[in-house]
Amino acid sequence: MTGAIKDSDNRAVVGTDEKRRLTFGFVGFSILTVLAVCSVLMVFLGVPMGASYWGIFNNFLDLDVYRHGGSMVVQGRPLYDGPVLQGMMFTYTPFAALLFTGWAVLSLQDAAVVWTVLNVAALLAVVVLCWKYLGYRLDVRAYAVSVLATAIFLFMEPIRTTLWLGQINIFLLLLIVWDLGREESSRLRGIGAGIAAGVKLTPAFFWVYLFVTRQWRALVIAVTTFGATIALGFVFIFGDAKKYWTGTLFESDRVGRTDTPSNQSVSGLIAQLTHTPTPSKVLVIAVSLVAVCLGLSAAWFAHRQGQKLLGLTLTGMTATTVSPFSWGHHWVWFVPLVILAAHYALASGKLWAWVFPLFCLLPVLNWSHTWWDPTVIPGTDRFVGMGLFMFVTPEYLRIPTRGIYLWVFVAVALAALIVFGWKKWTVPIPTAYVPAAHPS
User: Which of 114, 130, 357, 364 could cysteine-pair with 341, CB 3.0–4.6 Å?
Assistant: First the structure.
């Protein structure tokens, strides 16, 4: 078989009885194993585990904020009137606070262990689901590759920082990929997207994608589910829900300074390049609209060509790009992006095609360096484990490094427009596929 089956709209599809098989040979598998071992060692040793604040198990600040937010709900104290922990505000929805009440009963140490294990398990689930939705057979080889890929992804800055802070990003990624990656005929498809938006508003951007691609039932279910999460907040913590939805929601300064290097969004890049914490709103809106048009156009063409996972990934990256504030750890959408790049390299059968997975992976590796001023956070041993955007670079490298995640988004969106919009590339099925039981 030399190409993929096509539907009436000339889109490449994989039938329910036909599955690809991952074609990593001995050499490929060996390379993945070496990369996985190196990744795990760098997570633990790149910044020494015992380093104050920066050690992989010496932070969990955001998880502690979640716990204290849940504790405020349990104690009946106001959630949004001020800091809940060490000057940190609770910035999530009332529904999220209700979910976090279960973590309030655990000590930070116990919660950190459970949270970390669940995060790694969720990351593995995302990887497995990506292979599944790309049409691969989930056999022993696929699971082995998924485990190795999960280990490699641990050294990606968005993933390591998510684990280090005890963040929730991987769980939201799993909800979206599991839910919207399913067949459009799946019952209650859209409920995961609604719950994700109910916890953190950014995933509501996927509603625009569902609208553009005319997935009406999923859109209705997502919006209805989101409405239910709002209602639950008003039922159980009416005062907090009223305060959040009528005021706190619009206080973006509760998150952090717009011009911080970790803000990998349009507003953050413009603020850093213009050396101001308050960039021009007109400029931010104009550039954001261009980014939305670019990202959603690429997502629409990908969807039309049967590349549903690519469409979701582009939408997730677009949402992160135009969000008012996007920490580096919000960019967990690099996980399906790297898997997609590997998938297209496998399908093309060309050695040079593996340049693209490396292009997607290298900018988000967790680079350890020692520029941090210990007078800011005393006793930090001058270790830093962050992405390229935290490097102090010469002025001529300021533009490419300050917004490195944004530039990858632009490159990926343009590539998708060219490959699936202009060239209309039909992704071939690798020769090592499992034949359909009843071929057409």
Answer: 357
Q: How many CA atoms lie within 13 A of 341 on its CB side?
A: 25
**The two three-digit tokens of residue 404, written as one number:** 């490195």
Burial (Cβ within 10 Å: 0-12, 13-18, ≥19) of residue 85: middle
pTM above 0.85, yes or no: yes
| Structure token digits, residue 243 | 């305060």
Residues 6+ apart with CB under 8 A from 417: 294, 297, 298, 301
Tokens coding 126: 């995302």
Q: Which residues 6+ apart lie within 8 Å of 88 measured at CB?
A: 61, 65
**CA 349, 138, 169, 357: dihedral to nearest 10 degrees?**
-10
Between helices 157-165 and 169-180, what is the axis angle to 10°? Answer: 120
Compute the residue count for the chain.
440
**DSSP secondary structure, 105-134, as one string:** TS-HHHHHHHHHHHHHHHHHHHHHHHHHHT
Three-state DSSP class for residue 367: strand
Which residues are within 8 A (CB) of 290 and not within 5 positions of it... i.e. 6 or more apart? none
